[in-house]
Design goal:
4-stranded mixed beta sheet, alpha+beta
């Protein structure tokens, strides 16, 4: 599956990563719902770090359709809240 981190590029992850990413996504959603900025910042950092760690970067000139689009590391809580779908940033 192809995941885009806004402002950074695309990474290719295996479908096996979906469950792990969903757990990080759930933590991010909980932080947003509680309005806890520190927990939100940590959860966003953890989610993006895991995608970077597990994903294989695609070449900058690759134009693959992204299954998931994640906010940049410096996104605000309000910006991420606007990106959330019913199932979070990573539905599944």
């Amino acid at each position: 599956m192809i995941v885009r981190i806004m402002g950074e590029g695309q990474l290719d992850l295996t479908d096996a990563d979906l469950d792990v990413l969903n757990s990080f996504d759930a933590s991010l959603e909980a932080a947003i719902e509680s309005g806890d900025e520190d927990t939100f910042r940590e959860a966003l950092h953890d989610l993006l770090a895991r995608v970077r760690e597990d994903g294989k970067p695609l070449p900058p000139d690759a134009l693959e359709p992204s299954q998931f689009i994640l906010p940049p590391a410096d996104a605000t809580m309000d910006e991420v809240r606007e990106m959330l779908q019913d199932d979070g940033l990573i539905p599944g």
